Amino acid sequence: MSTKQKKIKVGILGYTSELAKELKSFIEEEDIFHDLIFHFYDLNAKDEYSILGDFREESIVVKYPEIEDLQEDNILILASNLPQNDDIVKLYSSGVVIDIANSLKTYSLLYKGEEKDTLISSKIIKLPEPSSFILYKILNPIKKSFGIEWAMANIFFPASSKEGGIDNFVDQILNSLNMQPINKEIFNEQIAFSFAPLDEELEDRIESETRELLGFKNVGVETFFASVFHSFSFFIHFKTLKPIEEDIFKYGFESENLFRFSRKRVTSPLEAAGKTKIELSFLRKIKDIENTYFFNASADNFKVGIILSTVEILKKLTE
pLDDT digit string (tens) for 268-292? Predict the structure, then answer.
């Protein structure tokens, strides 16, 4: 990306998606990227003025993603998981693609915090599944300081982790309270006042990505949908190669400025919602099992899992 350009143009595809709304809101709230020109696209914008939106308190026209328009953008952010994305990316040739919706099977780089030079040389940058990325961020400081023999994580997903999930979750709650049939349109099973499994393909991808990010194979995950609106919850058991010293343990997390330690046994997804920190419970040693520990974490699935990384990539590509 040339730093000599007067105005770098960024296209965001999927204006009506929950993810695009979160990204747009974060940019507005944090008051960042005033030197960039943003264009918004959506496949629902069939006619020229079919979607009128807003950005930074100004009205905007959301366009259908015609390739001629997309080619004017230096960076294209895919904010909606659609089958058409593959064809769009094949035709888009003018800049860097950032897939934040986990929509592409082929990519140049699975992002985990690379330097600017690495990002610039990558044509298609893919963000991991949000839960994979957060689990990597949690386990990597431990792996660096103490080594990990194995780790097992139970991950509870909120309703908001699926497009349209909040509305479906609310419908399930109301129908359940009124003893009406449960609407399983989004989750296929009841999550109101209950748990439901993720599909096996997604769970396998989370496990595979976590292993790739860590460069370490002895990591397993079990995943479920839980009766919460926002934020992942992680329940993590792990065994280290050497005993954990609490001061070193905490320093490894504090150096990244992404974590907040709590004296609670269990962190609250509600308290983590909307925050940019990963909430960590206190560490517990498993009795009578050498170097084996347990702790719990909560993190906002949008902000920590996706938005912060997207903003970080944009800053590195445009600075």
Answer: 999 999 999 999 999 999 999 999 9
Distance from C-alpha of 188 to C-alpha of 185, rounded to nearest angstrom? 6
For residues 88 and 45, what is the distance between their CA atoms, to the nearest angstrom?
15
Q: What is the DSSP string of 162-205?
A: STTHHHHHHHHHHHHHTT-----TTTSS--TTS-EEPPHHHHHH
Beta bridge partners of 225: 157, 196
Under 8 Å CB-to-CB from 170, ≥6 apart: which residues? none
Token couple for 262: 């709590």
Task: Tell me the two tokens of residue 59.
Answer: 């009205």
Model confidence at 3, pLDDT cuts 50, 70, 90, reads: very low
Query: In the structure, how many helices (H) and strands (E) does the chain have?
Result: 10, 16
Per-residue model confidence as pLDDT tens digits over 142-189: 999 999 999 999 999 999 999 889 999 999 999 999 999 988 888 989
Both structure tokens of 292: 């084996």
Run of H or E residues at 51 = strand 51-55
First to last CA, the chain: 9
What pLDDT does residue 2 have? 46
Q: Which residues pair with 68 in a beta bridge?
A: none
Interhelix angle 308-318/18-30, rounded to 10 degrees, is 60
What is the CB neighbour count within 10 angstroms for residue 201?
A: 8
Q: Which two tokens stand for residue 125?
A: 């940058």
